[in-house]
Amino acid sequence: MKKILIVATLLISNFLTCVALPDEGMWIPLLIGKYNIKLMQEKGFKLSAEDIYSVNHACMKDAVVLFGGGCTGEVISPEGLLITNHHCGYGQIQRLSSLEHDYLTNGYWAKSRDEEFACPGLFVTFLKRMEDVTAKVLNGITDGMDKDAHDRLISANSDEIRKSAVEGSGYSASIRPFYMGNQYFLMVYETFTDIRFIGAPPSAIGKFGDETDNWVWPRHTGDFSIFRIYAGKDNKPAVYAKENVPYKPLYHFTISLKGYKEGDFTMVFGFPGSTTEYMPSYYIDMVKNYINPKMIELRTKKIEIMRTAMNSDPLIRLQYSAKKSGLDNSWKRWIGENQGLERMKTIEKKQEFEKSLTEWINADPDRRSKYGNILPSYKTLYDKYREYSLVYSYTSDVFFNSGAEAAGFARNMISLARLYENNYDEAKINVIKDEMVNGAKGFFKNYDQATDKKLFVAVMTLYGENLDPKWQAPEYVRIKSLCKGNFQSLADKIYGTSVFTDEGRYTAFVKSFSKKSLARLNKDPLYLLSKSASEFISSNVRGELNRLSDEVQSLNKEYMTVQMEYDKERTFYPDANSTLRIAYGSVKGYDSRDGVRFKPYTTVKGIIEKDNPEIYDYAVPARLKELYRTGDFGRYAENGEMHVCFIADNHTTGGNSGSPVLNANGQLIGVNFDRAWEGVASDMSFNPEQSRNISLDIRYALFIIDKFAGAGYLLKEMTIVE
Length: 722
Ligand code: ASP
Description:
Blueprint: H1 2-17, H2 32-35, H3 37-42, H4 49-52, E1 64-67, E2 71-75, E3 81-84, H5 86-96, H6 103-106, E4 108-109, E5 117-118, E6 124-132, H7 134-137, H8 147-166, E7 172-178, E8 183-192, E9 194-200, H9 203-206, H10 210-213, E10 225-231, E11 245-246, E12 255-256, E13 265-270, H11 281-312, H12 314-344, H13 346-362, H14 365-371, H15 374-400, H16 405-410, H17 412-421, H18 426-445, H19 449-466, H20 474-482, H21 487-494, H22 503-511, H23 517-521, H24 525-566, E14 581-586, E15 590-593, E16 596-598, E17 601-603, H25 604-610, H26 622-630, E18 643-648, E19 660-662, E20 668-675, E21 693-697, H27 698-708, E22 720-721
Parallel strand pairs: 12-22
Antiparallel strand pairs: 1-2, 1-6, 2-3, 3-10, 4-9, 5-9, 6-8, 7-8, 9-10, 10-11, 13-14, 13-19, 15-16, 17-18, 18-21, 19-20, 20-21
Helix pairs in contact: 5-12, 11-12, 11-13, 11-15, 11-19, 15-19, 15-24, 18-22, 19-21, 20-24
The chain binds aspartic acid.
């Protein structure tokens, strides 16, 4: 135990004594005072570490939320007003929309509190405090301890720490591993669940350029939406109730209309999701050469089908917009990632590093016995791991993630069928049936049979082509041979009659379901396919994949340790893990390619240049054109130009969407929403020359709210400095 603690302490002091390189890294707020603040101040930051993170007084961290579990948002008024990205609020806005009230296409602005819409299921989370609990988590752990006993003790210690951290407070707690499990932090959170939608611009602004411009600079997307946090009368989290009142935050950001210039300090404060900066070449090889190419091909097909259908019918556009956006986002990032990894020669560089590391390890018998096995073990593991990972991801994307949707949907029936097979209590079954019928409404609201049929044919064909038969679900193999691989003719036969492709048929089937219905269910090819894929993954893939992943993780922990011992001068920040982090740097353009240097900001002029009424994504609203023509930008313009977006070299990733972008005085100048194409591989390898985060200029958001939408009354509750 003592030895482990010494190692942990050594490691921690190593992490912390490293000199930070400028601009790369996602730093821990609790430690910013000790290890980053000087550098931040040298770069222009005018405030103190306590202004960023403190448990003693209100500070910036009290205005930053994890939005909906996957994005970031920030509080911008004493009345709980919250700004995040349009793409973060997208699912909510889509759910509130119908053809008659199409808030996605037309935008929406609540004119009074009564018009603020409840968003069931949406929640936001504040970090109340964090604490290094490494020693407490490792209490009782000894060298050579059996893995199960080790894991059990860590989990028992963690339970205890969590419990005592939140007792009687109404907060929740989580303990997260950092530096690949070499260090542990406790996070104490407060979560609000009554969140209401206030407004968003039309998609022609909030999603301007859509998938074509996604991940690309220069950018002109007004990617923001506004919500409000509601609380009980005691200002504490409360379930939705009409009488709830706007939340009074401890802190809200002041908004600056002063803008920025190239070289100015910027800081992003948010919840980056996941990065893998310290992984070996084998991991990059798996992602770049094995998984990404196959997943890109599959998604290209799915997206193409959805895009064509959406362009043909406004209802389908509404039904598939959120689903397609979800698919698009990673699909395009994978493409950019692969290009970036290729351009930076990341695999080769990692291999060179591994060679020198191995020489260094082998030069000392002690090191050799401790670390000599890590890289060879990775090699053996990844040969297998990559195969299981691909099968898992590919199968999920074919069946369960907006692939053959009716088949994915049919999976719900597995548990109902099981209840009947096991003679479960009829009254309880009826409750479940009601839930299924209700749940189906949400599914069919966003379902178009003809589109799904095309998706079915495409993904079934690709599944057969891209996965070795030994990795295909048995029912798929059987059906494929029956239909002789002609999935079109199979779809023609089944889509018109299956209970999973029509709400009426489905509802009637579920309502009248009895033991006798099992026979019909067991003849439905969509059900059989779904069940088979699901069972195949459970029985043949998931277990081994989890085992391999555990092994990779324990190697990662050792690999992190040895990298830090080897390279004491290097800056090590922990990989992103959906906890609150700070990235800092400055507003900066970049060289895109030979002869092309990008400026760090864009203006409305560029929107007008892209205007094309023929293309949905580039059809500029008439009102915006008019405001541009008359130059009516109010107090939001700079030297007559209306800025739209800007870039900086803050290290960000998915999850940072919606994060506040702050100036040297901690005032809000932007809302982070994306990264530039050339540097998008920054999740695995940050490139200071080209990795840039893209932010919406807050002045453009205010201009849209005020001048474009006429909702300027909202600005009255904000604190704005000119
Ligand atoms: N656009 C990204 C996202 O969707 C943000 C990023 O990865 O930089 O989360």
